Prior knowledge:
Blueprint: H1 5-15, H2 19-28, H3 33-43, H4 45-50, E1 58-66, E2 69-77, H5 80-83, H6 86-102, H7 107-112, E3 114-115, E4 118-119, H8 120-131, E5 136-144, E6 150-156, E7 161-168, H9 173-186, H10 198-214, H11 219-237, E8 243-244, E9 247-251, H12 252-259, E10 264-272, H13 284-292
Amino acid sequence: MSIIASDVAKLRSMTGAGMMECQKALEEANGDLEQAAEILRKKGVIKAAKRADKVAAEGLTNVKVSGNTAVVVEVNSETDFVARNEDFRKVVEKITDHLLANKPQTPDQALAQTIDGATLRDYINKMIATIGEKISLRRFEVVEKTDGDAFGAYIHMGGKISALTLIANTNNEALARDIAMHAAAANPRFLNRDEVPPEVFDKEKEIASEQLRAQGKPENIIENIIKGKMEKFYSEACLVEQAYIKDEEKKVAQVVGFTAPGAKVTKYLRYELGEGIEKKGNDFASEVEAQLK
């Protein structure tokens, strides 16, 4: 039957669920609002909708390799307590395995894919109802390699940081893992100097120039000093130019080339839990009052 927009709006007002969830529930219930609301409850959508305004800045990152495919993912929860819960960890593992097997390109694409006979979005909503906190698939990236390359995967502090490296022209997975461990610890901003955006380079140069002028350096020598400062910037910001954590006398690129001649780091990913998420200050009394409503 045809579902009218006013009924969708009414069901959304009743349940707090999203427009698409309400539309599908009404279609399944042949337009019956009460039955549609019950369908949403069974799917855990109502409970999920009630937590939609919560900030999920805790959770876990994860990295996993399967053959020539790897994925790095961040799944968020509201509290660290839930992040340490075994049920939540199983959710993260299941989502990671799904991403590896299905190779979606975006979170929206992933959430629309099928898992256990339902969409990944419905699965997450069900787990929100079970666990009692907002859960969100924040970000992920699927990476592919050839048989002649090596992946390195490293998880730090139980999932607070996950790193993945791809080294071309070698099958030395131990080396790749060591470089992933380095990336997790050293937190590079870029792979190499070619990946530094011009605007970032220009800003760093501008800041260095202003610092030197403030120190009273004459203009005719500032340019030469700037060259040295920019080399220092590259050595701190670019993975392959950083001093290797296990041997600071060598750069990462030198270690890779010496250990596996002809090999080259071509990609790295580093996910740190909650980076870029603005956390709300909690008013405990208000939180308790809201939970009792």
